[in-house]
Design a protein that fits this description.
heterodimer; A: 1052 residues; alpha/beta; Dimethylsulfoxide Reductase, domain 2; Alpha-Beta Plaits; 6-stranded mixed beta barrel; 31 helices; B: 454 residues; 15 helices; disordered N terminus
Chain lengths: 1052, 454
């Protein structure tokens, strides 16, 4: 064959094989063909690829959160805020964790008998057992008892009508507040706090920015800190022996001795009363207290009490109770003292009011009484609902007591230590599957509707019928209760929905029918059963679509009608040397989210600890004990002892050690079991005189047991090493000058809109490579580090939205956590700064230029785009990233079924060897851009999305309870981002590297920051002094001069 | 140790062309047990490294301890180490050839072999440190329907070209030099071996015409290879200098890296040739004259390196760049995570070569061997210091994290040494490790009558 023939043959052969590949034969594609069939009849609410939103309500404790469940292809994949609601328009971490719990592989798959590993029973059998047992109990005169988490609305109503004894109790709950309200105001309720207009917030330990009071209080606080709200910035003082994540945001911390807070509160109240001239009944109720004695009991100066009182008396001050942190032997007194303090200061009802949570709140004493009743054998049926006293009260013999009930029924949907003790488990539908309603505050009813049917895992083998591989057969607890109620003759409706409709019918009657009586009197039938009224269905559909019924949100002034006996300080008692401070885990709380990998994996805001329990010890104490970080110690109290690792921190008094409740489960699912220790073992069963649990009542001895514990913190350094990551401005100056756009913004901020920035062009400072132009969008984010309180909700929302894998403790030890948002915690003197750090989407991204395969590049919208498919995993980008914002997939991580069903179908899951990072939720950006393109009927792809549609678009900004994160378009001249960038508080970490971040930060407002020098707020505090930390940028000095000139020019 | 240590500055010469041939070819005889044991060890270690790599491909990069923010660890450290090693060989074979340095003759072949094998070893690392190693061909500019192209702005891309160029040129240069010597082997062997050597010698007959072309080609390749001595390690240093990471982002890196490369390479040549000389009894060809010169090179480059180390601190201080200052002060903090590594580096690279200023020490084989070994360790530590400590204390203090290699990384590091040694050991026994023809140039040609008498 000569060359010519060879080439001919090659050409023929090549084209023949190419043609066959192109479809000359039957095999059209190389990849296997799967049929995607369109709907024959498309369901109205389903458009493939487009999410549907359902308004519903998620409840944790007395807080109820109106949310929008994002529904895709039959599954809820995300939870967003129901912004229309008048009550708490942001989603808490808890809502996300409930979502993950919903898909937990450990969830009960159906009714079962005899504990967590018992035998399966059918729902019919289960309900029959309950109905029979209830009827038998009624007959034999035995009690029907309820022990569960807080329930309001219709559930509270049906429980009350069925059960003889109903105890609604949660560990670290609100019983002290309820007791105090009952004693002082004659109504058992949890008061309502509206911090929006506060100028001084005095907390006696309540974790009001995280686990206490709900998002509304946290949101109110950030408004009170916001300058746009008026010319003041609220000051936050903490009176507590321990400074938790909430306390870390305090401007002043008075580290008092445990058990002395009530005395301090009363002392403050007396001084305030003198200053305000209050002479009402609250003064008498306060009793006498000597300031000096209170100060000495608290271990602070009397002058400090005077100082607090002076701030408080200045007006618009609100005192928050102690929450779990104040739950000493005088827990109720502390709550009462704060109520009285608010009243004498004149803060009621503007900041503190009576129209709070009105549903029953039980005491630890009630639980103990119920346990006694159980032990005496007088309880015929015990219902247990989403409450785990076996874990929370290890020193009260709950488990054995439950065994003595005639029938113990658990409605809890996930296995825990308490369900294990129950004879029958009827796993209840959770917030995403059930009907219901909640009343978090008087006048607001939040509705719950099923947003998806119970999970099923289906599989269709090739050529065979589809079959259900696995399923979660859950039903509403309401159905069981209605059946029981019918057996007792106290419920007439046939099902739970009927019961709810009857109740909602009354609301309809009050709101619609009665309002219309003037014209046409409602007929009798409608009055008797308004749900049968013709208009009811349409009305209800509308309300369900909105997710709430609001009658009034007026705040009622509390009236002091009673009093409370006062004690002296109630310090912890026992054999040990140190006071034990027990606090709920920042994410797991009292233990309810222990089996949520998100809650376990998210670092503790203050210490960075994950997947464990630890004890926090003051450095002085640590020194005297000869222990350091991660040393193993044994804590021993009169009640019990536990082994823990040490975290040395200045956040606790030297005579006190702090531990987190919530871990140490033995039978709570695969993620919770055998993680950490249950510190409740250290706490006895002590209560205050009113029956509230006294968590802070034990003394412990701390014995180093030698060796190292197994703690792991994701935090690196404790300070920002003066690198401009944590910046503050003086609060006084900020209060005077405000956040308003300043002529002198942050020095280098102008450089960041390069296309708008003439300075560089004029000076010939251009780049070797031309910069990407952003004709329509330059997406960016503003992070207000003053509003950020470190809760970590953004991070969890990001996990949920972007399918971030959970890596577990062993991998975190290797530095493998995948969170795209790192909430950095820096100490700056006594201040704690929380600085959420994510990809900064730099205009001059160091990562982009080093990637050898162009897997990361800058796109037209200003995003630093990451092409997972193209990444080969050199990890050079991560080395180059000065913010260390990139995360690497060291392994291919898996989601155990059915966690995978929660995965966001809009976001691909990544495999090993690929770099990833914050994408600014590019999938949401695409969706909103498409939507606006359709709306504008524009032929142009980039029909501009207004800023208002972007502000809370990204998952983190949506989830932030304090709106610390604001998303937007930098090309919108007067948009939120540009306004923020002109703020006197604006700063950009590592600005001097000229990376031109799309993310800017607003400095923390500090009452302790030094006052800034000469030219006004523009260069106030440290903000804007990027060059101070860095080597400055070549053009900055010049640019500043120019700005001066421009400013001068304006003046002319 | 040795009695034939020569002190006058000139090597012993073999008696004749025939003696030279015999001395070199003698090595090819039946391998000793010690050699086989050494080879078996090298191959085992190499295979262990291969297994470690398999584990890494199977389970992901997570089996290595590279972590956030220290995304480069032992692999890149070792990559730079091996690339650096290569440089001495090219320096000796090309630059010293061009400047007609006579002492090069005895050592250049082994050094050049070392270069080729070191670059082959170095080439492993950019591949095996990839998260998705199976996509490594994406580094190359090949036409494809997806219109994918590489990023020529990336220093890693420059690396691909620099290293592949370096490998190509040094391999060709090595081979060209070998041709006349292989022909000698061919002439002295029979059977299959003769056929193989015959193929490899490309029909070399030693004609005048062949010598004429050969010398031109050799000179040409020497000229081509010479700038690579400076350029390749400069490009490698840009992997760091072009990234803005503090501790990396420095204009002094290219000369600093080149000096380091030559230091490490010369030390490695001493480490390799010293045992070879004794094992093969080649004292006539490689002896104190060569080692002393290599030691002098080391002393010079060590001084440059010490200056560079000092200059990093000066630049850090003078620039008032807080990030740079922080990283350098942290590196030198004895109580910090990697303080020991810094002081080990300073000891090995700056202090350990100092005794070589003393002629006696420079001529003592034990002193030469031990100090060279110390320098080898020190040069690995230098790269460890630069890469790991800079990343571990990156810009954001909140991300600071400790990196320490896992057994997989140590295994791959050992495996790379096994891979290198395997090649080198095979080379010793199959190819002339001393350039026979060039040695002959130093011997008076076997002619009737004395040329010198004329």
């Amino acid at each position: 064959m000569n060359r010519r023939n060879f080439l001919k043959a090659l050409g023929l052969g090549g084209s023949a094989s190419a043609l066959s590949a192109c479809g000359l034969d039957d095999n059209r594609y190389y990849t296997p063909v799967e049929q995607i069939l369109p709907y024959v009849v498309k369901p109205e609410s389903v458009t493939p690829g487009t999410p549907t939103f359902f308004a519903t309500t998620i409840t944790r404790g007395p807080e109820a959160h109106p949310v929008l469940a994002k529904h895709r292809d039959g599954r809820v994949v995300h939870v967003g805020a129901n912004t229309r609601s008048p009550w708490m328009a942001s989603i808490p971490k808890g809502a996300m964790l409930e979502l993950q719990k919903h898909y937990s592989p450990d969830r009960f798959k159906g009714p079962q008998a005899n504990g967590n590993s018992g035998s399966t029973v059918s729902w019919e059998d289960g309900v029959k057992q309950v109905v029979d047992a209830v009827a038998a109990a009624k007959q034999s005169g035995k009690k029907i008892a309820w022990l569960g988490a807080y329930r309001s609305g219709s559930y509270a109503s049906i429980i009350a009508s069925i059960c003889d004894t109903a105890v609604f109790w949660e560990p670290m709950g609100y019983e002290a507040e309820a007791n105090a309200a009952e004693a002082l105001f004659g109504t058992r309720m949890i008061p309502r706090y509206d911090l929006d207009d506060a100028k001084y917030v005095l907390s006696f330990g309540a974790d009001f920015l995280n686990s206490w009071g709900g998002n509304r209080v946290a949101g109110g606080w950030s408004k009170a800190r916001s300058h746009t709200h008026g010319h003041h910035v609220a000051r936050f003082a903490l009176v507590s022996p321990y400074r938790d994540q909430t306390g870390a945001n305090a401007d002043d911390w008075y580290a008092v001795k445990p058990g002395s807070q009530a005395l301090v509160a009363r002392a403050v109240a007396r001084i305030v009363a003198t200053k305000t001239g209050y002479a009402g009944p609250a003064l008498a109720a306060l009793g006498n207290v000597d300031t000096a004695a209170a100060a000495s009991a608290a271990g602070i100066e009397a002058a400090q009490i005077e100082e607090i009182a002076a701030h408080f008396a200045a007006g618009d001050a609100v005192a928050l109770p102690g929450g779990p942190a104040g739950a000493s032997g005088s827990a109720t007194e502390l709550a009462a003292a704060t109520f009285l303090l608010n009243i004498v200061a004149g803060s009621a009802p503007k900041l503190f009011s009576a129209g709070g949570y009105m549903a029953p709140v039980g005491n630890a004493a009630d639980v103990q009484a119920l346990v006694a009743a159980l032990e005496s054998g007088s309880v015929g049926v015990l219902f247990v609902d989403d409450c785990n006293p076996v874990h929370a009260l290890p020193n009260v013999n709950v488990k054995d007591a439950i065994a003595k009930a005639g029938l113990s029924v658990a409605f809890t949907s996930h296995p825990d230590e308490t369900t294990d003790a129950c004879k029958l488990i009827l796993p209840a539908a959770d917030a995403f599957e059930d009907w219901g309603d909640e009343q978090p505050v008087a006048g607001v009813t939040l509705l719950r509707q099923p947003t998806m049917s119970p999970l099923q895992i289906r599989y269709r083998p090739p050529g065979a019928e589809e079959r259900v591989e696995d399923g979660w057969d859950v039903r509403s607890a309401g159905e069981v209760l209605v059946a029981a109620g019918r057996a007792l003759g106290v419920v007439t409706q046939n099902d739970w929905r009927g019961y709810l409709h009857a109740r909602w019918g009354m609301v309809y009657k009050a709101l619609v029918l009665d309002a219309a009586t003037d014209e046409a009197p409602a007929d009798d039938a409608a009055a008797m059963a308004p749900e049968k009224d013709a208009g009811f269905a349409a009305w209800l559909a509308g309300r369900l679509q909105e997710g709430f019924v609001a009658t009034t949100t007026a705040m009622m002034a509390p009236t002091v009608t009673g009093s409370i006996p006062w004690q002296d300080a109630t310090p912890p008692a026992g054999a040990g040397q140190y006071n034990l401070h027990v606090t709920p885990h920042a994410h797991i709380r009292d233990g309810r989210y222990a089996n949520s990998p998100w809650a376990q994996e998210l670092p503790d805001p203050m210490t960075g600890q994950v997947w464990d329990s630890w004890v926090e010890i003051h450095p002085e104490t640590a020194k005297s004990l000869g222990v350091s970080d991660n040393s193993k110690v044994t804590l021993k109290s009169d009640a019990g002892s536990v082994d823990l690792g040490v975290e040395v921190t200045t956040s606790v008094r030297p005579d006190t050690v702090a531990v987190q409740l919530g871990q140490g489960h033995t039978n709570n699912g695969r993620y919770a079991s055998n993680i950490g220790v249950n510190v409740a073992a250290l706490v006895g069963a002590a209560k205050d005189p009113q029956g509230a649990m006294a968590w802070q009542s034990a003394k412990v001895s701390v014995t180093p047991s030698g060796g190292k514990a197994d703690l792991i913190s994701t935090f690196g350094g404790d300070t920002d090493e003066n690198r401009n990551f944590a910046v503050h401005v003086n609060a006084k100056q900020f209060g005077e000058n405000g956040d308003a756009p300043q002529a002198h913004g942050g020095e280098l901020t102008g450089i960041h809109h390069l296309e708008l920035d003439k300075r560089l062009v004029e000076n010939g400072i251009t780049d070797f490579y031309s910069l990407t132009q952003h004709p329509t969008y330059r997406f960016g984010l503003t992070v207000d580090t003053d509003a950020c309180n470190g809760c970590g909700a953004c991070s969890i929302a990001c996990y949920a939205e972007n399918n971030l894998p959970i890596v577990g403790k062993e991998k975190i030890k290797e530095g493998r956590e995948m969170s795209w948002i790192r909430v950095n915690r820096y100490f700056k003197g006594d201040e704690t700064h929380f600085v959420p750090m994510m990809c900064q989407h730099c205009g001059h991204a160091p990562c982009e230029s080093v990637c050898p395969v162009l897997a990361t590049y800058h796109n037209l919208d200003g995003l630093n785009a990451m092409v997972y498919n193209r990444c080969v995993g050199t990890r050079y980008c991560s080395n180059a990233c000065p913010f260390s914002a990139r995360k690497f997939n060291y392994h291919t991580y898996v989601w155990p079924e059915p966690f995978n069903m929660q995965l966001n179908p809009d976001v691909v899951t990544r495999t090993m060897g690929v770099m990833e990072k914050c994408s600014f939720c590019v999938q949401r950006l695409r969706a909103v851009k498409s939507a606006y393109k359709d709306e504008a009927a524009s032929t142009e792809y980039n029909a501009k999305v207004p800023d208002s549609a972007l502000t809370r678009l990204v998952a983190c900004a949506e989830a932030c309870p304090t709106h610390a994160l604001t998303f937007g378009n930098l090309n919108t001249e007067d948009g939120a981002l540009n306004t923020a960038r002109k703020s006197s508080r604006n700063y950009m970490p590592l600005d001097d590297l000229n990376v031109m971040s799309a993310v800017n930060y607003l400095a923390k407002v500090s009452f302790h920051a030094p006052e800034a020098g000469h030219h006004g707020g523009g260069h106030g505090g440290d903000a804007g002094h990027a060059g101070e930390a860095g080597d400055g940028h070549g053009g900055s000095d010049h640019g500043e001069e120019k700005k001066h000139d421009e400013h001068g020019g304006d003046a002319h | 140790m040795a009695t034939d240590v020569y002190t006058s500055g000139e090597p012993n010469r073999p008696d004749s062309y025939g003696a030279a041939n015999r001395d070199i070819i003698r090595v090819l005889l039946k391998p000793s047990v010690a050699y086989l044991a050494l080879l078996a060890t090298s191959i085992s270690v190499m295979l262990f490294g291969g297994w470690c790599w398999y584990m890494q491909i199977r389970w992901g990069m997570g089996v290595a301890n590279i972590t956030h923010p220290t995304m480069w660890g032992v692999y890149i450290v070792t990559f730079v180490f091996w690339v650096g090693i290569g440089h001495a060989g090219t320096l000796i074979s090309a630059i010293l050839f061009l400047v007609r340095s006579r002492w090069r003759t005895g050592v250049y072949r082994a050094s050049e072999a070392m270069t080729v094998f070191a670059v082959m070893t170095a080439l492993l690392f950019p591949v095996l440190h990839l998260g998705r190693v199976w996509q490594n061909y994406w580094f190359f500019p090949y036409p494809n329907q997806r219109q994918l192209w590489m990023n020529f702005k990336s220093p890693l891309m420059w690396d691909v070209f620099a290293i592949s160029t370096y490998f190509t040129v040094s391999a060709i240069f090595f081979y060209v030099g070998l041709v006349p010597d292989i022909a000698i082997f061919r002439d002295h062997s029979k059977g299959l071996v003769r056929r193989i050597y015959g193929l490899l010698s490309l029909g070399w007959r030693g004609t005048h015409r062949q010598w004429h072309h050969y010398m031109a080609a050799y000179g040409f390749f020497a000229a081509l290879a010479a700038p690579l001595v400076l350029s390749v390690h400069s490009v490698v240093s840009w992997d760091f200098a072009m990234a803005n990471t503090a501790g990396w982002h420095s204009t002094i890196f290219p000369p600093y890296f080149v000096a380091g490369a030559i230091l490490s390479g010369c030390a490695m040549v001493i480490s390799l040739l010293m045992p070879m000389t004794y094992a093969f009894n080649w004292h006539k060809y490689v002896n104190t004259w060569h080692f002393e010169n290599l030691a002098k090179m080391c002393v010079l480059t060590s001084a440059i390196l010490s200056y560079a180390y000092g200059m990093e601190y000066f630049v850090g201080w003078y620039s008032q760049n807080p990030y740079e200052q922080a990283i350098f002060f942290w590196r030198a903090d004895p109580s910090a995570d990697y303080g020991w590594a810094f002081y080990l580096m300073v000891f090995c690279n700056c202090l350990a070569p100092l005794p070589w200023y003393i002629t006696k020490v420079r001529r003592n084989p034990w002193a030469l061997f031990i100090i060279a070994a110390i320098i080898n360790v020190g040069m690995w530590m230098e790269r460890f210091n630069i890469i790991v400590s800079s990343l571990a204390h990156n810009f954001d203090p909140a991300t600071w994290w400790f990196y320490w290699p896992s057994w997989v990384e140590w295994g791959i590091l050992a495996g790379s040494a096994g891979w290198f040694c395997t090649w080198f050991l095979l080379f010793c026994k199959t190819l002339p490790a001393v350039a026979i023809t060039e040695i002959k140039e130093m011997i008076p040609p076997p002619v009737k009558g004395s040329l010198e008498a004329k």
